[in-house]
Write a structure and sequence with these properties.
Blueprint (H helix, E strand, L loop, with lengths): L2 E12 L6 E7 L1 H12 L13 E7 L2 E10 L4 E5 L2 H6 L7 E7 L1
Antiparallel strand pairs: 1-2, 1-6, 2-5, 3-4, 3-6, 4-5
């Protein structure tokens, strides 16, 4: 299984009409290119999904979970959602640099 490791800030997105907020890490640059190639060639865990997403396994600290990365038009990279349980377990704070390993 191939892996990509990046360090990037945790950021929050909130809808103007809904009270909930979502937290993401943005995968950009060479790492994003590697994700794109793997997603296009079907090398990810389960291949491409809805919204152009790709299934991955992510690791931050001691926390490992299966999720999807989503194409991010603004940066040309990929968005990795980070759920509340992971943020709590790893004591992640908004705008803090986080190192994540994404496995293909």
């Amino acid at each position: 299984m191939e892996s990509i490791t990046v360090t990037t800030p945790l950021w929050r997105w909130q809808s103007a009409t809904a009270p909930a907020a979502w937290y993401f890490l943005t995968i950009e640059g060479d790492a994003a290119d590697a994700v794109r190639v793997a997603a296009m060639t079907g090398q990810w865990l389960d291949g491409r999904r809805g919204f152009g997403s790709a299934r991955v396994e992510a690791r931050i600290g001691d926390s490992i979970w299966k999720t999807s990365v989503f194409p991010h038009r603004e940066s040309g990279g990929w968005l990795l959602p980070v759920k509340a349980a992971i943020r709590r377990a790893e004591r992640l704070v908004e705008d803090e640099a986080v190192t994540v390993t994404v496995s293909l």
